[in-house]
TrEMBL record:
Organism: Pontibacter populi
Main location: cytoplasm
Keywords: Cytoplasm, GTP-binding, Hydrolase, Metal-binding, Nucleotide-binding, Ribosome biogenesis, RNA-binding, rRNA-binding, Zinc
Entry note: cofactor: Binds 1 zinc ion per subunit.
Keyword Phosphoprotein: no
Pfam families associated with the record: RsgA_GTPase, RsgA_N
Localization per Swiss-Prot or TrEMBL: Cytoplasm
UniProt name for this protein: Small ribosomal subunit biogenesis GTPase RsgA
General function of this protein: One of several proteins that assist in the late maturation steps of the functional core of the 30S ribosomal subunit. Helps release RbfA from mature subunits. May play a role in the assembly of ribosomal proteins into the subunit. Circularly permuted GTPase that catalyzes slow GTP hydrolysis, GTPase activity is stimulated by the 30S ribosomal subunit.
Length: 307
């Protein structure tokens, strides 16, 4: 049988088959990812083949993992330690942000976007809590959205309270597997509760299952919105681990810098204090947003863990 891993506890997995039935599963034998040290061979979103053993408990055995289209990894802070695969086979990410209560920093948004660029996951910004905006805030949000749109990131406005934009959000999710992310307090859980029908039921199904596992630490869970629509939540993960990007490559993950790279005098330009830098020139002429450039510099300097 074929299915998708919707939950992983480390030693046990929950697999949804084509009919939507959930199976408790374990992995047969050892699987290794080439060239990478990872602590988990299998993650949420992985497509697998499995057999159901009819004896004893309803237990499935996974014998094959299909090649991943992409995946995101939580990198260990220790170079020698193992990384953790958070999720696989994502079509896109929705980054939920707020301008008030709380205010998401540009640094946070831009770090997320760089990580998503590195993993090749298209990202859409979702401004939540628009019911709290006054006219001035609306204007400000439009300016920010315009800035991100110019460099290739779509954005929408929603309110979990007034229901603004929820139809548009559902359309964006339709027939896709989407990672939902956001700083805590932005309303991610509230939105997931609205988007996923019978969420409470699904959550209880899933937690029943994890109680039987040895490890109950979870890193991500996948919810079915409808037949071909899934969302992946990463409870407890504040930020995706930024991939290890060499300084003179960081600009490749800022679309507005990437398109100017070959205009810099030096081809290993870090766009900081080199003469003849096309990026610095573009910032001077307001062709590259100052907030984006500040995010770039703070990542370049390595103080990108500040909030
Ligand atoms: P999470 O940490 O991102 O999962 O955030 P929650 O979903 O727990 O929401 C944090 C708080 O924001 C809660 O008190 C929600 O009721 C509130 N909240 C969520 N969405 C909205 C919204 O659209 N408008 C307003 N005014 N409050 C919201
Ligand atoms: Zn440069």
């Amino acid at each position: 049988m074929k299915g998708v891993v919707v939950k992983s506890t480390g030693s046990w997995y929950l697999v949804r088959d084509a009919e939507g039935k959930l199976h408790r599963a374990r992995l047969r034998g050892k699987f290794k990812l080439k060239g990478m040290k990872v602590s988990n061979p299998l993650a949420v979103g992985d497509r697998v083949e499995f057999d159901v053993e009819t004896t004893g408990e309803d237990t499935a055995v996974i014998h094959k993992i299909e090649d991943r289209e992409n995946y995101i990894i939580r990198q260990s802070t220790h170079k020698t330690a193992f990384s953790h695969i958070i999720a696989a086979n994502l079509d896109q990410a929705l980054l939920i942000v707020t301008l008030v209560s709380p205010r998401t920093s540009f640094g946070f948004i831009d770090r997320f976007l760089v990580t998503a660029e590195a993993y090749d996951i298209p990202t859409i910004l979702v401004f939540n809590k628009t019911d709290l905006y006054d006219e001035e805030m609306r204007d400000y949000q439009r300016q920010i959205s315009h800035m991100y749109q110019q460099i290739g990131y779509k954005s929408i406005t929603v309110s979990a309270k007034s229901n603004e934009g929820l139809d548009e959000m559902n359309e964006l999710l339709h027939d896709k597997t989407t990672l939902l992310s956001g700083h805590s307090g932005v309303g991610k859980s509230t939105l997931i509760n609205i988007i996923v029908p019978d969420l409470e039921l699904k959550t209880s199904e899933i937690s029943d299952f994890s109680d039987k596992g040895v490890h109950t630490t979870t890193f991500a869970e996948m919810f079915e919105v409808d037949d071909n629509t899934y969302i992946i939540d990463t409870p407890g993960i504040k930020e995706l681990g930024i991939v290890d990007i060499p300084k003179n490559q960081l600009g490749h993950f800022f679309p507005e810098m990437r398109e100017r790279l070959n205009q810099c005098r030096f081809n290993n330009c870090t766009h900081f204090n080199e003469p003849g830098c096309a990026v610095v020139e573009a910032v001077r002429h307001n062709e590259i947003s100052l907030t984006r450039y500040e995010s770039y510099l703070s990542m370049l300097m390595g103080d990108d863990n500040r909030k």
